[in-house]
């Protein structure tokens, strides 16, 4: 089980453990251990384990936690917060759903330990409303842990969200929790200085939090050794799209797409791999030449894409990449919070043009407009948050990787 | 029909729990929807008055969040995923068959008030694509096929 620390205890039907069942499997031992450790000792361990955040950006968890002020040292009054981000809406991502539904006590354990390390008085688990089975499972786990006195003085609750992808962006999430439209905020100040209600706040992804207890149980060396690369631990990879058996696969960090696609039963459709996104909808495409790249944040970034959520989307030789891109852009256009112009106005335009191309009504000038938009809007700082830049990644790489398909669609349009 | 005294009390309690009336606005909308299935103009105004916020603020919030319904919805809400993995696995055919059988488009409710059909962001059901989430308890169903749509609807949901 230790080579699958994250999912080894999950049941095939996803039925969550009761507290007694979880404890029989070694549950809450890591929490006991953390109780006798100083917050800095926990952070030291997490840093030594090389745990990178699994929510998309891959930021080192330990380093993030160090920004949190000790109790009584931040100006003003009020609690410090830990927010567990379970908004999961990135196209292609379905890992946090599983962790919430099948292993809720693992999330609570991670939250207790992380709250201790970050001096947080309150923890909030934000879960998207469509994940009601997950919401119910986590609420029950909290209830059981509280009754058993395992929470100590930590206040913890679930906050069901009310829809919209942008709520997952950490500053928009904070705005949403304060009861407003979920519009991102400027950083700095970073949430660790001024987050929820202006109080020090840490935001971590469900998978990141779920890994924390295992660092304490295994020790940082063994945790690191689970990985094939410099980035510690296992990763809950996912493979979907044109594969025979889409699914989740916990595997060493640094596992390759070739291995993962094989575990998913191979490419479906015509059986030929045309391209894949290595890290969810907002990651640039890779071709078959990247099948043997170790998939972690560092390697994927170096190869020109983004590891993001670590969820692969696979295109076979018969999938229409133009239509696929159009679908993605429709999503990002709709989910734009509307705050800044390039994103609010640019994405619907891009989506409309792609729809036209997919329908065989593309125009040469439109293709140039797409290329220009992808180049101009992609760099950080051109829009207020990473939604727009994220959307531009598949567009930019798709325009070059699928140039032939775009030309073919163009020719169809010119014939018509 | 105005909000019940019990619901109003819960909205006031939410204001205390969530750190003030503004922070409780979304919670109030959720409470109303939980009881009535959707949020009417009259109910929205009543909740705003109860919290002492402007109804335009409440409206701004309600119109932002996709799962706060500002129109009546059917007994069973079908949230059909329009994510890319579902698209790759035939979501468009399923969508067309659903529309055909129900006789409605996205954002609409069948005349008998049984079903509302909505398209939503990736549902985290890519391993069961094409997928949908149905009913009050948001049950995940999939992989769907055009041929399976009839059975899904007959299931009573
Ligand atoms: C548009 C957008 C949506 C995001 N959605 C999520 C999400 O659903 N879940 C998540 O954990 N992180 C999401 N993120 C990343 C968060 O902003 C943040 O980096 C993350 O929650 C931090 O957790 P980690 O350090 O454990 O990775 C999103 C980012 C952007 C720009
Ligand atoms: S980039 Fe898009 S989602 Fe982000 S703040 Fe601007 S409009 Fe909102």
Automatic annotation (TrEMBL), chain A:
Is rRNA processing included in the keywords of this UniProt record? no
Q: Which organism is it from?
A: Cereibacter johrii
Taxonomic path: Bacteria, Pseudomonadati, Pseudomonadota, Alphaproteobacteria, Rhodobacterales
Name the PROSITE patterns on file: COMPLEX1_51K_2
Name the cofactor(s).
FMN
- What family, per the record? Belongs to the complex I 51 kDa subunit family.
NADH-ubiquinone oxidoreductase 51kDa subunit iron-sulphur binding domain segment(s): 322-367
For this protein, the parts annotated as crossing the membrane are none
Name of the protein: NADH dehydrogenase subunit F
Q: What keywords is this UniProt entry annotated with?
A: 4Fe-4S, Iron, Iron-sulfur, Metal-binding
InterPro entries named in the record = NADH-UbQ_OxRdtase_51kDa_CS, Nuo51_FMN-bd, Nuo51_FMN-bd_sf, Nuop51_4Fe4S-bd, Nuop51_4Fe4S-bd_sf, Soluble_ligand-bd
Automatic annotation (TrEMBL), chain B:
Q: Which InterPro entries match?
A: NuoE-like, NuoE_dom, NuoE_N, Thioredoxin-like_sf
Report the cofactors. [2Fe-2S] cluster
**UniProt cross-references to Pfam families, sorted A to Z:** 2Fe-2S_thioredx
In the record, the note on similarity to other proteins reads: Belongs to the complex I 24 kDa subunit family.
- Name the CDD domains for this protein: TRX_Fd_NuoE
The protein's name: NADH dehydrogenase subunit E
Q: Which UniProt keywords apply?
A: 2Fe-2S, Iron, Iron-sulfur, Metal-binding
Which SUPFAM superfamilies does UniProt cross-reference here? Thioredoxin-like
């Amino acid at each position: 089980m230790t080579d699958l620390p994250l999912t080894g205890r999950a049941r095939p039907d996803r039925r969550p453990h009761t507290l007694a069942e979880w404890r029989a499997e070694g549950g809450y031992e890591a929490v006991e251990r953390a109780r006798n450790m100083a917050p800095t000792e926990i952070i030291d361990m997490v840093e030594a384990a090389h745990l990178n955040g699994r929510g998309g950006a891959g930021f080192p968890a330990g380093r993030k936690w160090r920004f949190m002020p000790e109790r009584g040292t931040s100006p003003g009054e009020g609690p410090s917060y830990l927010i567990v981000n379970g908004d999961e809406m990135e196209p292609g991502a379905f890992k946090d759903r599983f962790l919430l539904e099948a292993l809720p006590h693992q999330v609570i354990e991670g939250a207790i330990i992380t709250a201790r390390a970050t001096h947080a008085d309150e923890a909030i688990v934000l879960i998207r409303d469509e994940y009601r089975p997950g919401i119910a499972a986590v609420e029950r786990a909290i209830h059981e842990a509280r009754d058993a006195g395992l929470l100590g003085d930590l206040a913890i609750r679930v906050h069901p969200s009310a829809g919209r992808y942008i709520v997952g962006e950490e500053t928009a999430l904070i705005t949403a929790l304060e009861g407003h439209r979920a519009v991102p905020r400027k950083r700095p100040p970073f949430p660790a200085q001024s987050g929820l209600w202006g109080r020090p706040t840490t935001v971590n992804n469900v998978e990141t939090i779920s890994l924390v207890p295992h660092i304490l149980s295994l020790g940082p060396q063994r945790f690191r050794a689970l990985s094939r690369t410099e980035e510690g631990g296992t990763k809950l990879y996912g493979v979907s799209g044109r594969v025979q058996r889409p699914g989740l696969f916990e595997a060493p960090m640094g596992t390759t797409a070739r291995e993962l696609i094989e575990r998913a039963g191979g490419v479906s459709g015509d059986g030929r791999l045309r391209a894949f996104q290595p890290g969810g909808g907002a990651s640039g495409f890779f071709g078959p030449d990247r099948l043997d790249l170790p998939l972690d944040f560092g390697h994927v970034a170096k190869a020109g894409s983004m590891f993001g959520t670590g969820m692969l989307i696979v295109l076979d030789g018969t999938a229409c990449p133009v239509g696929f891109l159009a679908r993605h852009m429709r999503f990002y256009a709709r989910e734009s919070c509307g705050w800044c112009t390039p994103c609010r106005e640019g994405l619907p335009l891009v989506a409309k043009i792609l729809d036209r191309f997919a329908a065989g009504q593309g125009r040469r000038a439109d293709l140039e407009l797409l290329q220009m938009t992808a180049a101009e809007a992609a760099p950080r700082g051109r829009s207020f948050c990473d939604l727009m830049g994220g959307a531009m990644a598949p567009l930019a790489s798709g325009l070059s990787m699928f140039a032939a398909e775009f030309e073919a669609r163009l020719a169809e349009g010119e014939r018509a | 029909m105005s909000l019940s005294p019990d619901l109003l009390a819960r909205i006031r309690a939410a204001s205390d729990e969530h750190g003030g009336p503004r922070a409780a606005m979304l919670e109030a909308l959720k409470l109303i929807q939980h009881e009535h299935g959707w949020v009417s103009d009259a109910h929205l105004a009543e909740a705003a008055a109860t919290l002492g916020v402007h109804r335009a603020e409440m409206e701004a919030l309600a119109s932002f969040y996709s799962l706060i319904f500002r129109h009546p919805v059917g007994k069973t809400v079908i949230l059909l995923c329009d994510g890319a993995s579902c698209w790759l696995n035939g979501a468009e055919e399923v969508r067309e068959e659903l529309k055909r059988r129900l006789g409605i488009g996205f954002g609409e409710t069948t005349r008998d008030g049984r079903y509302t059909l909505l398209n939503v962001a990736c549902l985290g059901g890519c391993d069961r694509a094409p997928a949908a989430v149905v009913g009050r308890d948001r049950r995940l169903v999939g992989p769907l096929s055009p041929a399976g749509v009839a059975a899904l609807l007959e299931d009573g949901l």
